[in-house]
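Tokens for chain A. Residues wanted.
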């Protein structure tokens, strides 16, 4: 059974940092691209960042470029999202996702985590 479990969310002041983790089990992690998406209350889910299977390629949403950094450790079956200079508009539930194809649309991802709440206060 495939499981993706996010952790590391919380409450932080604007300008602060958080590091999210996404631990995968039941899947050959290195065979899957990983993506991070977020959903704020009353809004649609939006793409944040994706990383290729090897970690050699990444793609960021313009809204987070220069502030967020994605990485992965295939030996540890874990993906990470380092979030710096957080803004109130970054407040959302953050989900990681795994899929056979690297991309920025949710449809290419096969497995999803339950999400972790990130709240940025002003």
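Reply:
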């Amino acid at each position: 059974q495939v499981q993706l479990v996010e952790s590391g969310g919380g409450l932080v002041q604007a300008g602060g940092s958080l590091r999210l983790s996404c631990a995968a089990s039941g899947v050959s992690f290195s065979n899957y691209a990983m993506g991070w998406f977020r959903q704020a209350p009353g809004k649609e889910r939006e793409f944040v960042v994706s990383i290729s299977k090897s970690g050699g390629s990444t793609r960021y949403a313009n809204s987070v470029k220069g502030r967020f950094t994605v990485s992965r450790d295939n030996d540890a079956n874990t993906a990470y999202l380092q979030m710096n200079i957080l803004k109130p508009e970054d407040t959302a539930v953050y989900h990681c996702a795994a899929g056979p194809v690297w991309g920025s649309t949710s449809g290419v991802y096969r497995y999803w985590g339950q999400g972790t709440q990130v709240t940025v206060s002003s």
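The chain has a mean pLDDT of 97. Residues 6 and 22 are 4 Å apart (CA to CA).
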